[in-house]
Design brief:
single chain; alpha/beta; Enolase-like, domain 1; TIM Barrel
C-alpha cells in the first residue's frame, strides 16, 4: 500500500517560457518525489484540457496558478492520508475527483502532475528504478530500448509556419546502441548546420524542439536538405540513416482541402503527394499524413504506405482509447504516437499503449514542444517497450535530459535497441 502524506505543486516554466505544473508527492515512510508535466503547441481536438488561467496580463493567459491551486488545495485535501493499492487506484481516484470527460474541472496538467509524482515516489518506496516500475505496470519484462527519431528540421507550428511540414527527423538506422544513435545524429546535425549556412546564409536558428529552421521554399526542400545533410555527415541515406516525417496536416487542412504551400489538394491528391515523398526519400515513418477528422481516407493512406513506412497517428488518436479502437477497426494506422498528457493519467495512457500493442501496432513514445528538464519520459519509453522515442533535437537541455537518462538506462541494463527499421 502507498499512503499519501502531502501533495504540493508549483508553477514553473517550460522550454518555451510558458508556465507548467510541477508537483511533489510525499508518501508515508519518507518517500518523496517530484515530477513536471509538458505542454504541446501542436494539439489535437480530442486532447485532455490543460487548465490555464486566461489572464491576458500574465503570460498572455497561459498561467497555471489555477491548476497549481487545485493540487495544493482540492487534491491534497482529498488524497492526504489515503492509502492506495497501486497506480491505477490513484489515477481512478483522480478521475473521480475531476468528474469530467476531458479533465476540465481540475485540469489535465494538475492531474498528470500528481499521477507522475506518485509513480516516482512509489518506485522509491519499492526500491525500484523508475523504468522498472513502469515495466511492472505494463506487466511485460524489459527487452529492448526504443530507437530515437531525432529532430533535424522543423516547420509548421514548431517554427512559425515557414514550411508546411512540422518536423523532419533522422532515424539512426544502423546504430546498435543509444550511444551510437546519438553520435550519428550529432554528425548529421552538424552537417545540417554547415549546409544551411552555405545554402541560406544563416546561422543555426532553432525551433521549439531544437530542429533547425531555415526558410525552406517547400516540403521537398526540407526533405532534400535532410538527405544532403546525411550524406555530408558521411552516411548513406536509407541504409545508415533514414527519415521520419511529422506532416501535422490538420494545421493546413481547411474545408476538405490540404493547403500545402501554394497548392490546394483533396485527400486523394494528398495521399498521392505522400506516396511521391515515400518513393523519392528514405522515409520510414509518416506521422499525421492526413487531418485528424479525415477518417474516410486514413485507411487509404495506410494501404498506400503498406510495408514501406509506418502510418503514425498523433492528432488522429490523441492517446485516446476510443479513437485507437476506431482506427484499429478501420485499419487506419499501424503506430500510436503516445503522449501521456494528451489523455491525462498514466493508467489511461497505459491502457492506450496496451490496446495498440495488442493490435500488433508499434508505439512511439513522444515528448511535447513545451518540455521541462524532467526525464521521466525516458524511463517510460523503456518500461513500456516503446519502439521509437520522439523527444526533439540534441541541442537543448530539456531534450538532452531524456537522452542522457536513456544513456544511463542503457548502461544499467545493457539492453539492445529495438529491431526497427528492419
Amino acid at each position: 500500500m502507498f499512503t499519501i502524506e502531502k501533495l504540493t505543486a508549483l508553477e514553473i516554466l517550460d522550454s518555451r517560457g510558458r508556465p507548467t505544473v510541477q508537483t511533489t508527492c510525499s508518501l508515508k515512510g519518507g518517500f518523496r518525489a517530484t515530477a513536471s508535466v509538458p505542454s504541446g503547441a501542436s494539439t489535437g481536438k480530442a486532447e485532455a484540457l490543460e487548465l490555464r488561467d486566461g489572464d491576458p496580463n500574465r503570460y498572455r493567459g497561459f498561467g497555471c496558478r489555477r491548476a497549481v491551486q487545485n493540487v495544493n488545495q482540492k487534491l491534497n485535501a482529498a488524497l492526504t492520508g489515503r492509502s492506495l493499492a497501486d497506480q491505477e487506484a490513484l489515477d481512478r481516484a483522480l478521475l473521480e475527483l475531476d468528474g469530467t470527460q476531458n479533465k476540465s474541472a481540475l485540469g489535465a496538467n494538475a492531474i498528470l502532475s500528481v499521477s507522475l509524482a506518485f509513480a516516482r515516489a512509489a518506485a522509491r518506496q519499492m526500491a525500484q528504478p523508475l523504468y522498472q516500475y513502469f515495466a511492472g505496470l505494463l506487466g511485460v519484462p524489459l527487452q529492448t530500448l526504443p530507437r530515437p527519431t531525432i529532430n533535424l528540421f522543423s516547420g509548421g507550428k514548431h517554427a512559425g509556419g515557414q514550411a508546411p511540414l512540422q518536423d523532419v527527423l533522422v532515424v539512426p538506422r544502423s546504430a546498435r546502441t543509444i550511444d551510437e544513435a546519438l553520435a550519428i545524429t550529432f554528425a548529421v546535425y552538424q552537417s545540417a548546420i554547415d549546409l544551411i549556412a552555405q545554402k541560406y546564409g544563416m546561422r543555426a536558428l532553432k525551433a521549439d524542439e531544437g530542429g533547425l529552421a531555415p526558410p525552406f521554399a517547400s516540403a521537398e526542400a526540407m526533405l532534400e536538405d535532410a538527405v544532403a545533410a546525411i550524406r555530408m555527415g558521411g552516411f548513406e541515406p536509407g541504409r545508415d540513416v533514414s527519415l521520419a516525417v511529422d506532416v501535422a496536416s490538420s494545421h493546413f487542412y481547411r474545408d476538405g482541402r490540404y493547403q500545402l504551400g501554394l497548392t490546394a489538394m483533396d485527400s486523394s491528391a494528398m495521399i498521392r503527394q505522400i506516396d511521391d515523398w515515400i518513393e523519392r526519400y528514405p522515409i520510414v515513418s509518416l506521422e499525421d499524413g492526413l487531418a485528424e477528422d479525415d477518417w474516410p481516407h486514413w485507411p487509404k493512406l495506410r494501404e498506400c504506405l503498406a510495408s514501406r513506412a509506418l502510418t503514425v497517428g498523433d492528432d488522429l488518436l490523441c492517446t485516446n482509447q476510443a479513437r485507437i479502437e476506431r482506427a484499429i477497426a478501420l485499419n487506419a494506422a499501424d503506430t500510436l504516437l503516445l503522449k501521456v498528457n494528451q489523455i491525462g493519467t498514466l493508467t489511461e495512457a497505459l491502457e492506450s499503449c496496451r490496446l495498440a500493442q495488442a493490435a500488433g501496432w508499434r508505439v512511439t513514445i513522444s515528448a511535447r514542444s513545451g518540455e521541462t528538464e524532467d526525464n521521466w519520459l525516458a524511463d517510460l519509453a523503456a518500461g513500456w517497450r516503446g519502439d521509437q522515442l520522439k523527444v526533439g533535437s540534441i541541442m537543448q537541455s530539456e531534450r538532452l535530459s531524456k537522452y542522457n537518462r536513456l544513456l544511463a538506462i542503457e548502461a544499467e541494463t545493457a539492453l539492445p535497441l529495438v529491431n526497427w527499421p528492419n
